[in-house]
Specification:
Blueprint lengths: L3 H43 E11 L2 E3 L5 E6 L6 E2 L4 E5 L2 H71 L5 H68 L2 E3 L4 E3 L9 E2 L6 E5 L3 E8 L11 E6 L2 E13 L25 E8 L15 E7 L2
C-alpha cells in the first residue's frame, strides 16, 4: 500500500499539465482562425477573385484560296514562323497553262482591234465622199430651181405675147420646151439627191458597224486582260505564306494531297497577342470596372505574378452565347448564378514569361477594386 501511493500521486501530477494546455491550444486556434477570417474579409472588401479563367489568343487559320495538289510542305509541327514565310506550295502547272491560253486570247483580240481599226478610215473616207456628193447635188438643185424659175417667167411672158401675135409660134414653143427641160432637170437632180442621201445613210450605217466592231474588239481585249490578271493572281495563291508572326499548330498534310479553296489546313497562333478571359459571377461585378489593376497567376507558373488590367465586359453572360441558351420564360425555380466573361489584358509587355503562355492555360485572377 505504501508503494502504490507515490505511483498514483505521480499519475495525478502528469494529468494536471494536460488540463492546463488544452485551453491554451483552443485559444490559439480561435485566435488564428479569427485573424484569418478578418484578413480574408478585409481582402474580400478590396478584391474579387476567380479561378474560372483561361489564357486566350488570336488563332489565324491557314486557308488556301485556290484548289490544288500540294507540291511541298515547308513547315513542321509547332514551328515558329514570321509574316511572309512560305508555308505550302501548290502545283502551279494548271494555272500556268491557263495563263498561256489567256495570253493567246489577248493576242487574237488585239489583232481583231487592228483589223477593225484599219477598215474604219476607209469607211470614214466613203462617208465624207458621200456627204460631199449630197452637198454637190444640193447646190445643183438650187441652180436648177433658179433655171426653172427663169424658164417659167419666160414662158409666162411668151404666153401673153403669143396671144397678141407679138412672137412667133416657134419662139413660144422654145420657151415651153425650156421650161419643161428645166423642170425635168430639177426632178432628176432631186432623184439623184435621194439616191445620194440613201448611199450616205448606208455608208454611215457601215461606219457605225465598224465603230461598234472596234468597240467590241477593245472590250474583248479588256476582258482578256482582266482574265489574265485574275489568272496571275490565282497563280500567286499557289504559294501560301504566313500572314502573322506566330507558331503553327499540328500539320496533317502530305505532298500530293488535294486541298480545296476555303479548306482549313492548320492554324497559326500569334506570339505577341494574348489576354485572359475570366468568368466572374454576376454577384461579383458590382464594384468592378474597366481599368482596374489585376494580378494574374498561371497554374503552369505558380511562383510568378503577371501584371494586368480589366479591359472590358461581355455584353451578355456566357450561357447566352452557348449553342443551346437556356430559356427562363417560366422563371427560375432554382436561381442559378450566371457568369459574365471579363477580358483582362496584360500590361507589362517586357515580362519574359508572356512568351511562355499558351492559349487555354488555366489561370487565377485577382482584381484590385478601387
Amino acid at each position: 500500500m505504501e508503494n502504490n501511493q507515490p505511483i498514483q500521486q505521480s499519475a495525478a501530477d502528469d494529468k494536471k499539465p494536460k488540463k492546463n494546455i488544452f485551453p491554451i491550444v483552443f485559444a490559439a486556434l480561435v485566435l488564428v482562425g479569427g485573424t484569418y477570417g478578418v484578413v480574408k474579409y478585409m481582402h474580400a472588401q478590396k478584391h474579387e477573385e476567380t479561378e474560372d479563367a483561361q489564357v486566350e489568343a488570336l488563332i489565324s487559320p491557314v486557308i488556301p484560296r485556290v484548289p490544288g495538289y500540294i507540291k511541298e510542305v515547308r513547315v513542321k509541327d509547332n514551328q515558329v514562323v514570321r509574316k511572309g514565310d512560305t508555308l505550302l506550295i501548290l502545283d502551279d502547272r494548271d494555272f500556268k497553262i491557263r495563263m498561256a491560253e489567256i495570253e493567246a486570247g489577248i493576242a487574237a483580240a488585239q489583232s481583231n482591234v487592228s483589223v477593225a481599226g484599219a477598215a474604219l478610215p476607209v469607211v470614214n473616207a466613203n462617208v465624207y465622199s458621200a456627204e460631199s456628193n449630197v452637198s454637190t447635188v444640193d447646190a445643183q438643185i438650187e441652180a436648177a430651181k433658179v433655171n426653172v424659175w427663169r424658164a417659167t417667167q419666160d414662158f409666162n411672158r411668151y404666153q401673153n405675147l403669143i396671144k397678141d401675135h407679138s412672137i412667133t409660134q416657134q419662139q413660144f414653143e422654145q420657151a415651153m420646151a425650156a421650161k419643161q427641160t428645166a423642170e425635168r432637170q430639177l426632178d432628176v437632180l432631186k432623184a439623184q439627191r435621194q439616191s445620194a442621201a440613201r448611199q450616205t445613210a448606208a455608208i454611215g450605217q457601215q461606219r457605225n458597224v465598224s465603230s461598234g466592231q472596234v468597240s467590241v474588239a477593245n472590250a474583248a481585249v479588256k476582258q482578256r486582260m482582266a482574265e489574265l490578271e485574275a489568272a496571275n493572281l490565282n497563280l500567286s495563291y499557289t504559294i501560301i505564306t504566313a500572314v502573322v508572326d506566330g507558331q503553327v499548330s499540328k500539320i496533317n498534310l502530305q505532298p500530293g494531297q488535294l486541298v480545296q479553296a476555303g479548306q482549313g489546313l492548320f492554324n497559326i497562333v500569334p506570339s505577341d497577342n494574348k489576354w485572359v478571359v475570366a468568368n466572374f459571377k454576376e454577384t461579383q461585378l458590382a464594384k468592378m470596372k474597366a481599368g482596374q489593376k489585376v494580378t494574374v497567376k498561371v497554374d503552369a507558373y505558380p511562383d510568378h505574378e503577371f501584371e494586368a488590367k480589366v479591359s472590358s465586359f461581355s455584353p451578355a453572360t456566357g450561357s447566352k452565347f452557348s449553342l443551346l441558351p437556356p430559356d427562363n420564360a417560366s422563371g427560375n425555380f432554382v436561381k442559378t448564378v450566371q457568369r459574365v466573361p471579363v477580358k483582362i489584358e496584360f500590361t507589362n509587355a517586357k515580362d519574359e514569361h508572356l512568351q511562355k503562355l499558351r492559349a487555354g492555360m488555366n489561370v487565377g485572377v485577382d482584381v484590385h477594386l478601387n
